[in-house]
Amino acid sequence: MDTILPPPPPVLLPISGSPVGFPVRRVYCVGRNYAAHAIEMGHDPDREPPFFFQKNPDNLLLPGEDFPYPPLSSDVHHEVELIVALRSGGADIPVAVATDHVFGYGVGIDFTRRDLQAEAKKAGKPWAAAKAFEHSAPVSEVVPAKAIGHPKNGNVWLKVNGELRQHGDLDQMIWTVPEIIAELSRLFTLAPGDIIMTGTPSGVGPVARGDVVTCGVDGVAALAVKVV
Q: What's the angle, vertex CA 105, arms to CA 14 and CA 61, rounded to 5?
């Protein structure tokens, strides 16, 4: 069928060691998946059922691009996260086979307009304006699982202008990657091209124009972004 408007171009993430890109379908995010971060945000760190929100594929900021500080906010926070890229999907995926659906991994930043999020929380409203704004998710290249396996531990870190702000380990996640995939597939039918941002360790904080943010998951990938 012809279209009345030109269809948007696909969002393609670079793949380590490959000339082809990873096409993004959806972007799912896990909230408060590290106990220390849950505590710093004023919540109970106990293992309660995970909750999810979404960003849009075109919110992703590709490696090497600057992060433009967004309007309508004066309190934008960094949140470094392991990223999971799916090669296949389905509904009600068992935990035991969840990683069979993983193509690869990367690192990303869930930039958050914290002041808008606080206003939304206070009013009992959705977080979309705080989370799914333009360029709000800088991401690294995707590293295939066949090259690095399925990491269960590894240092997760973020620095602002060389100062360490966030530090944790993948083994501190309340819900593991297989469990996240299984729980998410109970709510949505997952598919090839889906991206999952798996939550952030403690130490989240503000950025300002001119800052250089570097982050990584040891053994997976690293990323550098300038705030402009």
A: 45
CATH number of the structural domain 12-226: 3.90.850.10
The token pair that represents 56 in the structure block: 């849009």
Domain boundary assignment for the chain: 12-226
Find how far residue 130's CA is from the centre of its chain.
14
pLDDT in tens for each of the 228 residues of the chain? 899 999 999 999 999 999 999 999 999 999 889 876 555 555 556 667 888 999 999 999 999 999 999 999 999 999 999 999 999 999 999 999 999 999 999 999 999 999 999 999 999 999 999 999 999 999 999 999 999 999 999 999 999 999 999 999 999 999 999 999 999 999 999 999 999 999 999 999 999 999 999 999 999 999 999 999
Cα 23 to the center of its chain, rounded Å: 16
- 51, 38, 193, 23: CA torsion to nearest 10: 140
pTM exceeds cut of 0.70: yes
Provide the token pair at 92.
């009600």
